[in-house]
Amino acid sequence: MAALLTSLILLAYVGGTAAYLAYVFVQREGLSRGGAGCLAAGWLAHTGELLRRYLTLGHLPMATPGEALFFFSWTLTAVFLVLTWRFPIRILGALVAPLAALMAAALWLLPSRPGTISPLLSGFWLHLHVLLALLGTAALTLAGLGGVLYLLQERQLKQKKFGFFYRRLPSLTQLDRLNHWCLTLGFPLLTLGIITGSLYAQLTLGRFFNWDPKEILTLIAWLIYTILLHERLTVGWRGRRAAWLAVGGLGVMVLAFVGASLWFSGYHSFGSFRTP
Question: I need a surface site. Which of 71, 180, 205, 252 has the fewest CB within 10 A?
Fold first, then answer.
């Protein structure tokens, strides 16, 4: 059963990748619908596999880099599927689908460290913290990817190079609306994720903030998004500046999610999740 589910997940995400990449070239709407359908089918299988792992292991499947990326692939796909219903920017699927497939495949590609699972991976507050933080990060990731597309389209317009990508990218207005929607969804979720994480740290470690590298980097990213949201709502920031801040925030979030978990020591690092 486990092998069947994991095979279906990867097959569906790879199928979605193929459909969305084909859409980029031939611009047939049926291909984008097929890509979304593949991702939806893969997400359902993904949900089943995460539930199976949780019930089998008895803890949140986040103890290894592969499990963490597998989990984030699930949240990214979920937010993207909601996004395609609200903002049908189909070319974004050509970025999200291969990213989801690659992160899902990390479960098998990245080795796990033997040892006993730390009790830090259990508890209601931790589960809530992880879910909220990853959903917020997924929405803000889409804002960053949309920012990349915005900057690419703006550059083509300024240089008057109306080539391959110009005809396939959405308008600057659509991409800016995508940035705003993802920010207004992702920022509150990330904020709640930080708050619940602080509560869990107080309960387990006795302090709300422990100067862990991941905490510091996440706080920096949160401040970037705070500035972006404040300026959009009060000053009316739009377009290029908003896109650059969204891309910058994404860069810090990637460093927090990957770098602080793999390269830096701290209780968020994967080495701390297992004991010999």
Answer: 205
